[in-house]
Each structure stands twice: as structure tokens, then as C-alpha cells.
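Researcher: Let's do a round of design. I'm pasting the C-alpha cells now; please hold your answer until I've finished.
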């Protein structure tokens, strides 16, 4: 249950591996000599046919044991930013009453260090980052236009208003080391989005209360709008994802220092790739946030929006002339947040989705004072909903098939486009399986 794209098979995992790149070797030396990482679990990097680079250990890793233990100062966190005097001067120039999201600050900090080049204290880490991202954000314009089922989600994943806000606050600020304006000269929009996605896909969760304790009384805490619950973790971010394991993290003081520790629920043999679990994500979330997906994903589900249900209602009105749905039913759904958690998975339809389908297409009440017992009472018999559930899946299948056909018509696909094509095939297969279970 792990893979980086749909074109290869995880069975290839046991094949011979290539040596790590010079950039990764330098990163390991940097972590050991400058960040005082002891590497007690004897981790090293290998290149695997399916996942690309990943981590192994030179010894067996038992169940429920540590796989990595990093000094907290080896992570790029809000504390790192607070300790960087030069960057804090830049932030002070632009912040004013502005409150930043922690992810945005980490993005700006990565950006700043990228600009510093060889002068950056994190240059070894920056050089180890992938040169090309596989996220669907980097599909060509033609590819994005061909696949609305994915491109609509891309727009939501990078907060465009946040990008504009960063540009607005930095547009009149010049770099102290070269005098050039930050936006758009030093920090072009596309590059900002790249670093935003790097932060989004490579950060780890850190307990925010512990970070706040470390930063008690500092200016940086007055500059943020959300919890300081994320950090970039050099070397640790080389672990690949698997749904077959569970991962536990902790941030605790050992002697005079804080250490960030990961434990795994699984055991790994010497030389076997070690996986961690990024979270119980469906394939759409994995694709948008990490740039890959998992065939056979145990956590796969298909989100359904209220617009999808409204489109189903339009289709049904064309074939069922007597179907009448009072408009206040859709308002009632929104007012009571019934559109939240509407999805289906291998086990069936979510409670909210079943409730909404019954409320709109089966229940005949037209007076609002009768809605509450219908919506919040006992769900109806399954057979009353089967046809509507099948029609909803077919509606979504049609959209996915249209996107797939549109992509296949293009003469050439980018690397990101090929991953999306395989993702669409995987989702179509999953929805067909869901449909077959109902018949």
C-alpha cells in the first residue's frame, strides 16, 4: 500500500538500489557535524525503483521503537525563524498589524535562504530538495483545462489570496543583501508556489504548546495567526509514506536540549525500506498535497459536494417530470451543515450523504416544520436510496471519464500530467468497484 505513481508495482521494492546523490551525502554530513544528530538508528539513504529515494537502517528496527531522534534545532521551525536576526528585521518591516500563517512564514524563510545561496546556513538542506515537483499544480495549461475534476481542487489547495497578500506586503521591500525588491524580482509567483508546496508536503507535526513554551515572550508569537504546529525536518522528510504502518511523534526535553522523535508501530529488517504514515488521506489529498497517490489505498473515499447533488437533481428532473424539490430544502441543508462529510468509500455512503439523498429525492415533505424529524430521525431502508446512489456515482464517473479522455487526446503529457492520468484511472476503477458492490 505504497507507491509514488500508478505506473509501477510495489513488488519491485526488493530490487537492487542505487547509491544516494552527492547532495544527500552532504545533507547527512551537515546533520551530523553541524546539527549534532547522532543517528542512533543507523539510517542511510537508498534509491528504490518505485518510490525513488527512501531510508533504510543498517540494523533491525523492532516494533514500537524509535526510527529517528533529531535535535529540535535541526528542524526548521518557528524557533529557527525567531532566532534568525536578519530575517526577523525583514519581517518587522512588513508585518505591522499583519498576522502570518506558520506555513507562510516557513515558505518565506525557505525562499529567503534559497536567495542567500551559499551564504545560507541551510544550503545543504535546500540542495537536497527535489528539483522537480510532481504535484498537479505543475501540469501544463492544456492539461489543467482537460481535467476539471482535479484542477478545481488545485485552485483550493494554494490560497491565492494569501499569495497576493504576501506580494502586497513585500512589493516595496528590498533585500538587505542585494538591494533588489523581493516581489516580483527575487520571489516570482511560481517559485513562491513551489516553496509553498514543498512546505505543505514536507513539514511534520510538532506539538504547538511545547513550541510556544520555547518561544515564550518572543516577538514571533505576536506575528502568527495559527498554532506553531509544523516544522521542516531535514533528512526525516526522506521517509516515504505507507498506509501499512502507524507513526507516533514526540517533542521532549532530554537533558538541556529538546528532541523530536518518531516511533513506528511496524518492524523493519536491516536494509528494508522504512516507511512512515503521513496520515489517513484519500488519494485526492495525497495527489494535491504530496504529488503521488496509492493504488489500493485503504483510506480512499470520494468527496461529494452539494453542487454534485444539485447536478444530480437537475438530471433527475429531466427524466422524472413529477420530481419536485422545494428550494428551501437546499437552504436547510446548508443551514444545518449537512453538506459536510458527504462522501462514499468501499463500505458505502456516509451518514450525511445518505441523509441528504433521502431528504431531497425520497422524502415528500414540503413544509419546513416537518424537515427536522426527517433529517435527524432514523435513516430509511437502503433499497429506497440504491437507485439514487448509483446515479450519483455514475454522474461522478462520467466526469472522471471525460477528464481522462481529454488528457489522453493531448499529444504529450508532462510528468505531472502522467501521474494525474494514472490517478484518474485508479479513481475510476475504485468507483466502478463501489458501483458493482451495490448491484
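Researcher: That's everything. Go ahead.
Model: Designed sequence:
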Amino acid at each position: 500500500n505504497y507507491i509514488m505513481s500508478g505506473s509501477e508495482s510495489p513488488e519491485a521494492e526488493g530490487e537492487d538500489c542505487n547509491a544516494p546523490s552527492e547532495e544527500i551525502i552532504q545533507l547527512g554530513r551537515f546533520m551530523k557535524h553541524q546539527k549534532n544528530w547522532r543517528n542512533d538508528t543507523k539510517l542511510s539513504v537508498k534509491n528504490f525503483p518505485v518510490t525513488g529515494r527512501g531510508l533504510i537502517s543498517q540494523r533491525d528496527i523492532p516494533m514500537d521503537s524509535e526510527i529517528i531522534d533529531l535535535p529540535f534545532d535541526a528542524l526548521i521551525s518557528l524557533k529557527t525563524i525567531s532566532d534568525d536576526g536578519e530575517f526577523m528585521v525583514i519581517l518587522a518591516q512588513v508585518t505591522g498589524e499583519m498576522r502570518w500563517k506558520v506555513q507562510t512564514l516557513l515558505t518565506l524563510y525557505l525562499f529567503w535562504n534559497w536567495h542567500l545561496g551559499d551564504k545560507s546556513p541551510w544550503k545543504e538542506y535546500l540542495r537536497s530538495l527535489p528539483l522537480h515537483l510532481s504535484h498537479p499544480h505543475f501540469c501544463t495549461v492544456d492539461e489543467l483545462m482537460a481535467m476539471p475534476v482535479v484542477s478545481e481542487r488545485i485552485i483550493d489547495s494554494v490560497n491565492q489570496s494569501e499569495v497576493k497578500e504576501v506580494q502586497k506586503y513585500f512589493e516595496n521591500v528590498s533585500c538587505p543583501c542585494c538591494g533588489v525588491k523581493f516581489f516580483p524580482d527575487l520571489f516570482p509567483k511560481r517559485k513562491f508556489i513551489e516553496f509553498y508546496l514543498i512546505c505543505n508536503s514536507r513539514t511534520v507535526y510538532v506539538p504547538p504548546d511545547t513550541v510556544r513554551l520555547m518561544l515564550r515572550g518572543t516577538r514571533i508569537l505576536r506575528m502568527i495567526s495559527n498554532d506553531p504546529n509544523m516544522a521542516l525536518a531535514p533528512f526525516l522528510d526522506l521517509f516515504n509514506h505507507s498506509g501499512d504502518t502507524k507513526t507516533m511523534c514526540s517533542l521532549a526535553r532530554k537533558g538541556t536540549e529538546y528532541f523530536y522523535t518518531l516511533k513506528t508501530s511496524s518492524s523493519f529488517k536491516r536494509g528494508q525500506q522504512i516507511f512512515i504514515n503521513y496520515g489517513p488521506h484519500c488519494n485526492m489529498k495525497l495527489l494535491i498535497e504530496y504529488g503521488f497517490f496509492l493504488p489500493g489505498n485503504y483510506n480512499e473515499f470520494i468527496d461529494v459536494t452539494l453542487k454534485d447533488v444539485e447536478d444530480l437533481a437537475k438530471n433527475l428532473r429531466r427524466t422524472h417530470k413529477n420530481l419536485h424539490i422545494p428550494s428551501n430544502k437546499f437552504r436547510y441543508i446548508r443551514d444545518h451543515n449537512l453538506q459536510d462529510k458527504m462522501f462514499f468509500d468501499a463500505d458505502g455512503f456516509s451518514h450525511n450523504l445518505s441523509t441528504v439523498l433521502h431528504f431531497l429525492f425520497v422524502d415528500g415533505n414540503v413544509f419546513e416544520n416537518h424537515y427536522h424529524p426527517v433529517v435527524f430521525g432514523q435513516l430509511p431502508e437502503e433499497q429506497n436510496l440504491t437507485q439514487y446512489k448509483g446515479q450519483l456515482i455514475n454522474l461522478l464517473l462520467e466526469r472522471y471519464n471525460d477528464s481522462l479522455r481529454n488528457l489522453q487526446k493531448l499529444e504529450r503529457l508532462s510528468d505531472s500530467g502522467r501521474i494525474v492520468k494514472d490517478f484518474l484511472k485508479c479513481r475510476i476503477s475504485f468507483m466502478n468497484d463501489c458501483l458493482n458492490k451495490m448491484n
